[in-house]
Automatic annotation (TrEMBL):
Its cofactor is Mg(2+). Keywords: Magnesium, Metal-binding. Mg(2+) binds at residues 61, 79, 81-82, 190. It catalyses: adenosine 3',5'-bisphosphate + H2O = AMP + phosphate. GO terms for molecular function: 3'(2'),5'-bisphosphate nucleotidase activity; metal ion binding. It comes from Flavisphingopyxis soli. The lineage of its organism: Bacteria, Pseudomonadati, Pseudomonadota, Alphaproteobacteria, Sphingomonadales. This is 3'(2'),5-bisphosphonucleoside 3'(2')-phosphohydrolase. GO terms for biological process: 3'-phosphoadenosine 5'-phosphosulfate metabolic process; sulfate assimilation.
Length: 247
């Protein structure tokens, strides 16, 4: 598995470096910048995976979904540019996701935060976040879940809005936040790689009802997402259940 993790990290790094070069050239802006970054990073990632693992299936946000993947045990699930809006706006909270699902579970992942020169991968040497006196909950900049306020009030936590599912998940991995909540649906490429990394860091990952996350589904979507410190999971899930599940 180490070779797979190292490979995923190398792909995430290469795509992140490419995205930085495209943005730093300064010849594109707005939607054109996002479209160029998405397309070129996607092409690079597909080429690298296909060359190294030609028998594996690939599911990408930027490519047509080939349902032949359903017959494959191994599926690379990628988002070449997670947080396109933030990328276009010159912000740091965008990411590259390289995930590998094996038998429907997030097994390998690498998340690059190129603007911060950071790579997180699902290796055994990931640091465990230290508990803090203050608690932070990260949520979407554009679609914050209503339940976040209830949980923040109960735990005495601060809500922080942030772009990119990968950036939010890595905020929990690195200990800057304690809980990442999302409702309203995501695609598998939004969270496969972040979940693999978070699980390797000893974090709890599930839907907001506590159900396990499944990958390589016919409809590659996830209804809700919870990533949090393991010792907070029972309390957070109980608060969600008491308030009424969003699913």
């Amino acid at each position: 598995m180490t070779d797979l993790v190292d490979f995923a990290a190398s792909v995430a790094r290469a795509a992140g470096d490419l995205l930085l070069r495209i943005r730093e050239r300064g010849d594109l802006a707005g939607r054109a910048l996002g479209d160029r970054g998405d397309a070129e990073a996607n092409a690079l990632i597909l080429a690298m995976i296909s060359e190294r693992y030609p028998d594996d299936a690939i599911l990408s946000e930027e490519s047509r979904d080939d349902l032949a993947r359903l017959d494959c045990r191994r599926l690379w699930i990628i988002d070449p540019l997670d947080g396109t809006r933030e990328y276009r706006e010159g912000r740091n909270d965008w990411a590259v996701h390289i995930g590998l699902a094996i038998d429907g579970a997030a097994a390998v992942g690498a998340v690059a935060l190129p603007a911060e020169s950071l790579i997180f991968a699902s290796s055994s040497d990931l640091p465990r976040p230290d508990p803090k006196k203050s608690r932070n909950i990260v949520v979407s900049r554009t679609r914050p879940p209503a339940i976040a306020t209830t949980i923040a009030d109960a735990l005495g936590a601060t809500i922080i809005a942030m772009g990119s599912a990968g950036a939010k998940a890595m905020a929990v991995v690195r200990g800057d936040a304690d809980i990442y909540l999302h409702e309203g649906g995501q695609h598998e490429w939004d969270n496969c790689a972040p979940v693999a990394v978070a699980q390797a860091a000893g974090l709890h990952c599930s839907t907001l009802t506590g159900a396990p996350l499944a990958y390589n589904q016919r409809e590659p979507t996830t209804p809700t997402l919870l990533i949090c410190r393991a010792e907070l999971a029972s309390e957070v899930l109980a608060l969600i259940d008491r308030d009424g599940s969003p699913e």
